[in-house]
Amino acid sequence: MKLLAFIPIRLTLLLILGILIGSVLPVDTWYLLLSTLLFFLFLTLIFVFQKRSHSVLFGVIASVTVINLGMFCFSAAQPINHQDHYSNIINEERAIWTLKIKETLKSNLYSTRYFALVTMIDQQPASGTILLTLPQDSSALNVDDEIQVFSKPNPISPSLNPHQFDYKNYLKTLGVYDQLSIKDNQFIRITNPKKTLTGFASGIRSHIISQLQKEHFGTDELGVIQALLLGQRDNISEETYSNYQKAGAVHILAVSGLHIGILLLLIQFILRPLRNLPHGRTVILISSVIFLWIFALVAGLSASIVRATTMFSFVAYALFLNRPSNTFNILALSILFILLFIDPNLIFQVGFQMSYAAVFSILWIFPMLRDVWFPKNRAIRYFWQLLCVSIAAQLGVLPISLFYFHQFPGLFFISNLIIVPALGLILGTGIIVIFLSLLNALPLQLAWFYNTVIAQMNGLIGWIAQQEQFIFSAIPFDSIQLILSFLILILGIELYQSTNFKRTVFFLISIISFQGYTLYETNLAHNKNEVLVLHQTKNSIIFNRNGQRLSVLSNQTNNLNYLLSNYTTAERIKTINKDSLKNSYSINDTAVVVIDSSGVYQKTPSPIILLTNSPKINIERLALTLQPIEIIADGSNYKSYVDRWKTTCIQYKIPFHYTGEKGAYYLK
């Protein structure tokens, strides 16, 4: 593998290994700092006395040093490990929090959410980021707004059902551990808050959006324009976004390296005549970098945009130096090392993983695919190379996509072959549209033309998404399969580069391992039986799983799609049956009594009791009469009722399980 011959790439992989070890084996930050310094000192002594850096001992110590550095970076990057973090300061249940709005999150039907920086607690300086939640009808807060609130933090709820998206763990990777839920009249705005560059960028973007809303754009078209040019995806309809996902073109809707790279090529092409002037190349470099960062500012300066703009600023410099292609390879992965050194939590973000998996696979696989065929016609050669880039990138992100999203768009190459070549024109025209709109000088004809272009793109994506026979979804894919699939990919490319007996054997072993593990998991799924009470607000749900058959017991089955899809995919379920919830069941010779709002129940001794729909019953009498093994309350009950039942169960020493706190209950 030629890329591994470069030292920056080796160091990056070792740093990633250290970060991953640090995430599962937490060690005190000061110990890690001390050990890292000692390893660096030891490494220096070996280099000074041996006077060579190619010895086995030097290589081993260097590897251990970088791994230890990765562990230290991860520990030091966790906000909760800092002494001034709010969790290490707050003593009382309630305190006066001074918050600065950092980011506005996508709202839902019930609430508006923000990331807020904690600046002070009871007039004591503090740090950290907290999730701030307000009711939907509250007055809006903007980035950089500062408020004071008298409240107490609540821990973010973990995933309550099996295979459900773990929002708590996701926020933890962003350094967010708690939330504040307040109402409109429970906070005070601080006048004349200090402005930041992020807030300035957010204000510019809001002004641009308000100007575009005055123009003659369709609703769906305007939503896509905002996503393409401003990084704002909140106004895209669910249907449109779903179509882009199914067509394998959702990356087009997120301002990322693709957009920044195309813009850089477009700028370089427009400014190319300046090369003939004195210092023309320097002017092109400075102009390119300035324009890229202006675009990043307009697009909101999100973490992904800043990463991509930083990357291509260095690429612009490499173009200025006119270095060979290997420089780009080393440059891309050197920046990866620097980014992970600064913020190791990036490695756990899906967008970051997919972005660099695509970059790595393009750098490695694209040259091999490109050399398979060299068409003489320039147009055919251009589309062939574009197809090779698309296939190379898709190979790199495929395992990650299957792991997180469990689907594969079979027609991804069509959307990429048609839309990506036109993306430069779309972005360039869009920038002109924004500029003229800000001047209130956007011609109606240009607005109509651009709206038509976006509408045609949406139509093409919609047509591709309708070809459901080419969309492979609900694919079971776990972490072991993720690792094995990358192993197959790496060994397969190695075998293609140089065929020999040893590489052939390793490649075949990797395939057999993947198939063997998949068959093993399928066999486990075929023989697995379980009954569980799930949590859903205002509803009662029981899953009765028998092998690869699932019976869903609930009186309301309309809002179960997300629960069913996640569970059935991960557990390899083949058939699903739905039935209403009955009053009693028998599971492994244990009676399960279901008590609903009617309060009527069978007097079965020593049962497991499931309370649903807030029954008005005397829980003490129930405990004395039936002497239940355990009492379960699901999400269909009022919280006040649940608290009262919990208190009584503690008094009578009866195990109590509330699905809203402890998650799904497994009936054994």
UniProtKB/TrEMBL annotation:
Keywords of the record: Cell membrane, Membrane, Transmembrane, Transmembrane helix
Localization per Swiss-Prot or TrEMBL: Cell membrane
Annotated InterPro entries: ComEC_N, Competence_DNA_uptake, DUF4131
Protein name as it appears in the record: ComEC/Rec2 family competence protein
Annotated ranges, domain DUF4131: 29-187
Primary localization class, coarse: membrane
PANTHER family, per the entry: DNA INTERNALIZATION/COMPETENCE PROTEIN COMEC/REC2, RECOMBINATION PROTEIN 2
Domain ComEC/Rec2-related protein: 228-492
Bilayer topology annotation: Multi-pass membrane protein
TM regions (residue ranges): 7-25, 31-49, 56-77, 249-271, 283-299, 328-348, 354-370, 382-405, 411-439, 446-465, 471-492, 504-520
